[in-house]
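Quick start: read one record
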Amino acid sequence: MKTRPIWARKRGAVELSMTTVVVVVIGITLLTLGLRWVYSIFEGLGEEQTKLKELTDQQIVELFGNSASAINLPQPLASVEQGKKLNLRVNIRNIKDETHSFKYDVIVDNVPTTAQPLVKNKLVWFKGALELTSGKGISDFITFDTRGLPLGTYRFRVVLDCIDCGVEEKESVPLIIEVAPS
């Protein structure tokens, strides 16, 4: 009888090493596929986050009358019949990185001469301070009462002031109101 070498007699060792190789190959394949799947999920999430931020910024700008500035009047030109009241929306937004206090004022630029002493008392708006966190906005109304005022064009400037910004920072927008015959 012929004797076989020792390695030829131990078939279990060869089978074990072949099984190990197959398991390792399958494991590496599954690990690679799993990692690619996880990577694709996070890549998609990053794209969705970017799209969501762009959409949010676009909606904020639309809410503020397609303006990225801190103060906006959606209707800067208005006409009102003599003897009526006019409500105009003013939008204020904190475009700074931190929370700040803001205050806005309506300044008379040019009005008919006969209306100069009366016009300041015909404007009503919120005169207190507004504390806004970064990116937050608020809408308010400026009421203009035309009772007792002559016909003509009234020019104002709405000025927004950051009270606690350190440096005096003011933004303004024009407001023109035409008082027309009723």
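The chain has two domains: 6-63, 71-180.
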